[in-house]
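Supplementary Methods. Inverse-folding protocol.

Structures were first reduced to a discrete structure-token string of length 128. This string, shown here, constituted the complete conditioning input.
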């Protein structure tokens, strides 16, 4: 499962604090991506922020490129996986969070329609 941190503009007042608690961003706008691009992302952000004790203000970007541009432009912050494109952007910092944020996945398949790859996928999942 990917581990998530928070992407902030290098000009953000908290950009030099890592690791940092998610609660430190209570007053920030969170930039998500549209549900047709990343289903469930906005809901997940609401859940993890709720667990941290606050309701986030959300704005949706069309895709990760727009999300990154909005963070760069100091329009908000974004919860992003460690391998997000922002890790290579000189204008954006990725901060580790003191809370371990992961996203869960659900795997489904139709038993009546066997796929040769299912057994291999299940082995990979068992190892993970």
């Amino acid at each position: 499962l990917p581990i998530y941190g928070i992407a902030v503009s290098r000009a953000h007042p908290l950009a030099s604090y890592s690791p940092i608690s998610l609660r430190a961003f209570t007053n920030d706008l969170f930039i998500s991506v549209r549900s047709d691009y990343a289903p469930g992302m906005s809901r997940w952000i609401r859940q993890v922020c709720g667990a941290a004790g606050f309701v986030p203000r959300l704005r949706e970007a069309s895709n990760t490129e727009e999300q990154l541009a909005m963070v760069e432009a100091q329009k908000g912050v974004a919860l992003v996986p460690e391998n997000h494109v922002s890790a290579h952007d000189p204008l954006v910092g990725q901060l580790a969070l003191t809370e371990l944020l992961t996203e869960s996945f659900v795997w489904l398949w139709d038993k009546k329609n066997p796929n040769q790859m299912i057994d291999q996928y299940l082995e990979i999942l068992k190892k993970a």
